[in-house]
UniProtKB/TrEMBL annotation:
UniProt key word Aminoacyl-tRNA synthetase: no
Pfam families xrefs: HTH_1 (PF00126), LysR_substrate (PF03466)
Record family assignment: Belongs to the LysR transcriptional regulatory family.
GO MF annotations, alphabetized: DNA binding; DNA-binding transcription factor activity
GO CC annotations on file: protein-DNA complex
Name assigned to this protein: Transcriptional regulator
Keyword annotations from UniProtKB, A to Z: DNA-binding, Transcription, Transcription regulation
Domain (HTH lysR-type) ranges: 5-62
PROSITE patterns: HTH_LYSR (PS50931)
Organism whose genome encodes this protein: Maribacter hydrothermalis
Top-level taxon: Bacteria
Length: 295
């Protein structure tokens, strides 16, 4: 018996760690359940540590098992990335850039970057995935994304973060709201209105900033609805379910019966930042970051 951990051990371990059920994991791997149990026991013997707690009712991960599961997932994500990069090089392409983004980044920043990449590095392939802020942070940390566009106040110290776009906020009202745009004289008059916000879990920084805008006007907003999509927020405003405050750039591309009042005279701004791993291994990332940050 080999006294070293092999890739097959990690594959078997991860299947059981994800399913927490030996029979289901064995079916997923197309091997017998006794054979899988032997492989896991062999792995635990080599590592000299228990990875699973097993009884007749359930299978659970030990603290060591939880730690190993996160590490193995990272290893496999990285191996997938290496495989993709090798295939692209073999096809004569320079590589692939995997980009995470918030919907608001698609208004200006991401499209401009994609056009620059296409013009300067036509052999680079890009893939896009719309994700919430913290999902992007986790994906960059775990090597599932090369960079992300987020609205967060801080990131783990293994990541870099740089502001790439600063926007004003705008008040969103139903088209027939009984006030002309030119009559706007401050947020104070909206103290009794229902507000529709992006979910706090989706973007805590945005949520706290909107709360501060209202607090500066002397009131705490009465929140009636939350969403993670601008279209949903605008639709709710259109149907008189409340009013909203959003980054001004979000008004582009939506044809809805709402009106926007830019809040130019408040100090709060909506900052969009790019994040990437300090110790990245993607050769494409450096060139594309230079394109993004060149102005």
């Amino acid at each position: 018996m080999s006294n070293q951990i092999e890739l097959r051990h990690l594959t078997y371990f991860l299947a059981v760690a994800q399913e927490l059920h030996f029979r289901k994991a064995a079916e997923k791997l197309f091997i017998s359940q006794p054979g899988l149990s032997r492989q896991i026991k062999q792995m635990e013997d080599i590592l000299e540590t228990q990875l699973f707690e097993r009884n007749k009712k359930k299978v659970t991960l030990t603290p060591a098992g939880h730690y190993l599961k996160a590490e193995v997932e990272y290893i496999f994500n990285h191996l997938e990335k290496v495989e993709r990069q090798l295939k692209l090089v073999g096809d004569g392409n320079s590589g692939e850039l995997r980009i995470g983004f918030l919907g608001s980044a698609m208004q200006e920043v991401v499209p401009k970057l994609l056009l620059k990449i296409k013009e300067r590095y036509p052999k680079v392939k890009t893939s896009l995935e719309e994700l919430a802020n913290f999902a992007q942070v986790d994906a960059v940390l775990n090597d599932q994304l090369d960079l992300g566009f987020v609205r967060v106040s801080r990131v783990p110290n293994t990541l870099e973060m740089k502001t790439v776009f600063t926007d004003t906020f705008s008040l969103v009202l139903p088209e027939r709201y009984p006030m002309l745009t030119r009559e706007f004289d401050g947020m104070e008059r909206f103290a009794k209105e229902d507000f529709i916000l992006f979910s706090q879990a989706y973007s805590p920084l945005y949520y706290d900033t909107i709360m501060s805008i209202c607090q500066d006007a002397g009131f705490a907003p009465k929140i009636s609805h939350k969403s993670v999509h601008a279209h949903t927020i605008f639709k709710l405003v259109e149907n008189h379910m409340g009013i909203a405050i959003v980054p001004t750039s979000l008004q582009n591309g939506f044809q809805m019966r709402v009106k926007f009042i830019e809040l130019k005279d408040i100090p709060q701004r909506a900052e969009l930042s790019v994040i990437w791993k300090k110790e990245h291994t993607n050769p494409v990332l450096k060139n594309c970051m230079e394109l993004l940050l060149e102005g």
